[in-house]
Amino acid sequence: MSSFAHRSDVVLDDGPISDAERQLRVDLAAAYRLVALHGWDDVIYTHLSATVPGEPGRFLINPFGLAFDEVCASNLVKIDIAGNRIGAGDHAVNVTGFALHAAVHVARPDAVCVMHLHNVDGIAVSIQRDGLLPVSQHALRFYGDLAYHDYEALAFSPAEGARLTASLGDKSAMLLRNHGTLTVGRTVAEAYVRMDTLIKACEIQLRAQAGAPPYVVPNEAVATRTAEQLRDNGALEGELEWPALLRKLDRLDPSYRD
After folding, report:
1. DSSP secondary-structure letter at 39?
2. Cβ-proximal residues to 179 (8 Å cutoff; 6+ apart), any chain
3. What span, in angstroms and rounded, lies between the C-alpha atoms of 174 and 202?
4. Can you tell me the mean pLDDT for 126-142?
5. How far apart are CA 142 and CA 65, in angstroms?
6. Between β-strands 146-149 and 113-117, what pairing exists: parallel, antiparallel or unpaired?
7. Residue 137 near residue 225, CB atoms below 8 Å
8. What pLDDT is stored for residue 90 in this prediction?
9. What is the rounded CA–CA span in Å between residue 59 and residue 9?
């Protein structure tokens, strides 16, 4: 298949790019398209960001003003930690929106990809006092591995960045109270699969709560053992799922690779 990722002649506004960056661009663009496909996007808002391989302090993010289903490998924007664009180009960047991502990237070097969404079901669960309950197998993936951060209004300051990353700690996912969901990953695939699992856990909880209680809740020993099994001693998540998801996108609309 001919695509951006397989072309050695690609030159962007800031010069030639590496094979590793080409592949990262394709993966990140695919994640944007998958978010749109599932209806998890919020018009032009929220972001998925990723660290550029071999370029410390540089990141890829979506062009601000494009819908997620318009994002492709070549129009992703390269920025520095302050949100300044690297090279020339036509597309603006939401610097304020990237500030949250920047704080997480700095605090968590393992967070190659940071996903933050305003998914409706995720927000609904974040509003609940008890947050995500250990009532489904999907939710048990995050048993002991889910952080919470209280809402502090629209403006995101350096001080809140410090508080947010302190709340996140070493967890792989977070519910931002009254706001949305966040996952991190060592790859785009890992961050995406974690987000997919978190959103499904929220959807299941809300459907269960629409029925009449009481609910069946696994005991602590079962919850702990299941979480350990699902996290598989820190194995990289998403490796098997990602190629299948890319094949699905290729059947539907391969233009994300452009």
Report:
1. T
2. 118, 123, 126, 151
3. 12
4. 98
5. 33
6. unpaired
7. no
8. 82
9. 21
How many whole angstroms from its chain centre is CA 205?
A: 21
The secondary element (H helix, E strand) that includes residue 174 is strand 173-176
Runs of H (alpha helix) within the chain? 19-38, 95-107, 120-127, 137-140, 158-168, 188-209, 220-231, 241-252
Exposed e or buried b for every residue in 75-96, given b needs 16+ CB within 10 A?
bbbbbebebebbeeeeeebbee
The length of the chain in residues reads 258
In this structure, are residues 68 and 34 in contact, taking their beta carbons and an 8 Å threshold?
no
Q: Let me know the angle formed at the C-alpha of 46 by 44 and 52, rounded to the nearest 5 degrees.
A: 110
Residue with the two structure tokens 């599932």: 38
Pull the structure tokens for residue 2: 């001919």
The pLDDT tens digits for 212-229 are 888 899 999 999 999 999
Tell me if 72 sits within 8 A of 42, measured CB to CB. no
pLDDT digits (tens, 9 = 90+) for 14-28: 568 999 999 999 999
How far is it, in rounded angstroms, from Cα 162 to Cα 185?
Answer: 20
Q: Residue 221 burial by CB count (10 A; 0-12/13-18/19+): exposed, middle or buried?
A: exposed
Between CA 75 and CA 185 the distance in angstroms is: 22
Distance of CA 87 to the CA centre of its chain: 25
178: phi then psi, degrees, rounded to nearest 5: 65, 15
Which pTM was predicted? 0.93
Q: Among 155, 55, 161, which residue's Cα sits nearest to residue 104?
A: 161
Structure tokens at 170: 């070493």
